[in-house]
Structures are given as structure tokens and as C-alpha cells.
Amino acid sequence: MKTKNNQIFLHIILLILVIITLFPIFFALSNSFKTLQESFNSVLSLIPKEFTIDNYKYVFSRLPLFKIIVNTFVIAFIVTMVKIITSVLASYSFVYFEFKGKNVIYLIFLTTMFIPFTVTMIPNYLIVSKLNLTDSIWGVMLPQFADVLGIFLLRQSMRTIPKSIIEVSKIDGVSDLRILKDIIMPIIRPSIISTAIIFFINSWNEYVWPVLIISTKEHYTLSLALQLFISSEGGTEFPVAMAVSVITMIIPLILFIIFQRHIISTFISSGIK
């Protein structure tokens, strides 16, 4: 009886957490289809009384939204590809190569995960400024290329592969590049996919760094477009801001729903509980 009561209690807690997690999504979706007046009068209501798509029409008419979406996608895609390539190569080196100071170098890499962005923000900005990459998508992408999370996740996945397979392949004269391409990558493909999705979503949602770098609307990302409709007082175009929020969250949500099994299994195999 006590066990059953505990299960009921845990299910109630889980249900509350699910509601708290999903409420902002439904909140944004609901208010994006409301008029301005209804949004202010019944902001917490999840069912619009006067359903309208005028907010979305307004966004497309006021902003070069297609260009902004392309900018966001290009940045996220290139950042993801670069980080995946470097993460795969670095992970393979840390797992299957023996060189002096390997563990120390890996430990130094890991410590960078705990350095706050505010510490590296000014040095990164100075470097990007010296390279004349301010107000460009390359200036947004460059600091994002350096990320140790992918190395950590993929290294953990590669460590599950028996080293005997690699040793036999090397005895047969197979090169490291072929071992990586034909043996390692097919085995850890789910981890590569999930890590890529994490990289893509993180880059897609990046806000603080683009705010510092981008100044013209032609180079805006979706996160920057959102700030145009929000003021320090709460915003006079709140439903429009919610429409931009919905547009911003669509692709990350779709990617997570499709690949959530791979993402969860990657974190489990990495040892993160």
C-alpha cells in the first residue's frame, strides 16, 4: 500500500513538472493567435476567443523573415558540421591514440565546459572585431566552433567499442581514416546524430552573442528578431513577439521530437544521469 501511494505521489509530481515545462510553449502558441487587446485582457488563457493570424502576417510584412530564417539555419548548420567533424576527430584521437599528456590535455578540455560565457565574451569580441567580422554571420559562428561537449559525448560512445576490433584492423593494414569511416562512425551513428541535434538547437537558439555582433536586420537571426517586439516595459506588440517565438521554436521542437530517443541514449551512454 505504501509503495502504491509513493507511485501515485511520484506520478503527481511528474505531471506537475510536465505541465510547468509545456505551459510556456502553449502560452506562446495561444497568444500568437490573439489580438493585442485580448492578449492583455486574458494573457493566461490558452484558448483564443478571437482567433487571428494577423500577427504572423505582420511579422512577415515588417521583417525580411525568410532571410532571417535562412541566416539562422546557415549559422546553425555550419556550426554543427564544424563541431561534429572536430569532435569526431578529437574523440578518436583521445580514445585510440597514445601520446604524451593525453589525459592532461583532455582534462584541460573538460575544464573549459565550466568557464562562464561572460569570461570569454570580451576576448572573443576583441578577436572578432580585429578580424573585421562584426555584423556578419561569420562573426557569430567563429566563437561557437570551439566546444568540448561533443568531444566528451562522442569519446564516451567510442569507449564502448572493443579496442580489439581496432587492433585487428590495424594489423590488417587498415588506415585510421578507414577505421574511423567504416567501423567507428557506423557504430556510433546514433550518438553523432544526437550530438549534432544538440549542437544545432544550441546554435539556433543562441541570443547573447549575436546581440553583441549583429547590428543590421539583414544579418539578424530569429532570436534577434524577437527582441524587436519586446520592450523593457513588457512590450506593446506582445502577440507579435509570441508569433516570432513560435516560428523560432518550430524547428528545434521537431528535431527533438524526431531524435529524442537518440539524444537520451547518448547522454545515458556518456554516464550523465
Describe how the helices and strands are arranged.
Layout: H1 2-31, H2 36-41, H3 54-62, H4 65-96, H5 102-111, H6 117-130, H7 137-141, H8 149-158, H9 163-171, H10 176-187, H11 189-204, H12 208-213, H13 222-227, H14 238-270
Helix pairs in contact: 1-14, 3-14, 4-8, 4-11, 8-11, 8-14, 11-14
Structural overview:
The protein has 273 residues and is mainly α. The protein folds into two domains: 1-62; 64-270, MetI-like (MetI-like fold), CATH 1.10.3720. It contains 14 helices and no strands. The mean pLDDT is 84.
CATH topology of the largest domain: MetI-like fold
Instruction: Compute the number of strand runs.
Output: 0
Strand percentage? under 5%
Count of spatially separate domains: 2
Q: How are helices and strands ordered from N to C? A: HHHHHHHHHHHHHH
CATH architecture of the largest domain: Orthogonal Bundle
The CATH superfamily name of the largest domain is MetI-like
**Level-1 CATH class name of the largest domain:** Mainly Alpha
Shape: globular
Share in helix = over 70%
Overall SS class: mainly alpha
**Total of helices:** 14
Give the distance, in angstroms, between the N- and C-terminal Cα atoms: 29 Å
Q: In terms of per-residue confidence, which ranges show pLDDT below 50 for 5 or more consecutive residues? A: none
Largest sheet: none
What value does the average pLDDT take? 84
Q: Mind telling me the C-alpha Rg?
A: 23 Å
